[in-house]
């Protein structure tokens, strides 16, 4: 009598979308990732904030990615986000938060794309998230465009403020500074967006 042959062993390997931190700070940050433009750029702005959990505590191991248009509203098609040359603008940035949950990007204020309101698309990777979250950061100086933006106006009025940056005058380098805090849960939860595949 022969024994039945064993089925071949199957190895299942975790992929980044199935693995929940804290590998983000080890594998994803790179030098210059948070500097879409150099700090001395004449129209550089500082986009910064803190990532909070549902209890209101800072998340110390999150990573944020941003995508945006340039100042004229053009979507960049230039390569070079991982090796910035100080001249080209790729519209992509990646920043790890510090132990206090704070992040900072140096970029430019985007122009309107296809007549809509200017915004920065933000992706959040953090502990406890099986998949990253998407949100948008709008700018308060565009009240008329913001009031007509299809995405922003689809959000209940009482929650729209979670998608609008707070101006803070100028930052340490003299650049205009905008705060965009992200609350993953809780009373002040940031509005997050779904994308159909």
UniProtKB/TrEMBL annotation:
Domain of life: Bacteria
EC number: 1.13.11.3
Single GO molecular function: ferric iron binding
Protein name: Protocatechuate 3,4-dioxygenase subunit alpha
Enzyme class label: oxidoreductase
InterPro entries: Intradiol_dOase_C, Intradiol_dOase_core, Intradiol_RC_Dioxygenase, Protocat_dOase_a
Lineage: Bacteria, Bacillati, Actinomycetota, Actinomycetes, Micrococcales
Keywords, in A-Z order: Dioxygenase, Oxidoreductase
Family annotation (PANTHER family): DIOXYGENASE, PUTATIVE (AFU_ORTHOLOGUE AFUA_2G02910)-RELATED, PROTOCATECHUATE 3,4-DIOXYGENASE ALPHA CHAIN
Protein family membership: Belongs to the intradiol ring-cleavage dioxygenase family.
């Amino acid at each position: 009598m022969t024994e039945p042959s064993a089925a071949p062993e199957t190895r299942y390997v975790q992929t980044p979308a199935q693995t929940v931190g804290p590998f983000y700070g080890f594998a994803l940050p790179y030098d210059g990732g948070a500097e879409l433009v150099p700090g001395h750029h004449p129209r550089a702005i500082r986009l910064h904030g803190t990532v909070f959990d549902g209890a209101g505590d800072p998340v110390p191991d999150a990573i944020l990615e941003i995508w945006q248009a340039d100042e004229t509203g053009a979507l960049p098609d230039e390569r070079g986000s991982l090796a910035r040359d100080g001249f080209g603008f790729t519209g992509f940035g990646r920043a790890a938060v510090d132990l206090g949950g704070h992040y900072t990007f140096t970029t430019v204020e985007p122009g309107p794309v296809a007549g809509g309101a200017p915004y920065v698309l933000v992706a959040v990777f953090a502990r406890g998230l099986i998949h990253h979250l998407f949100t948008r950061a709008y700018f308060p100086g565009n009240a008329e465009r913001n009031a007509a933006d299809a995405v922003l106006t689809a959000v209940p009025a009482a929650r729209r403020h979670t998608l609008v940056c707070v101006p803070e005058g100028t930052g340490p380098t003299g650049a205009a500074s905008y705060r965009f805090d992200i609350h993953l849960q809780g009373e002040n939860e940031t509005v997050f967006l779904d994308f159909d595949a």
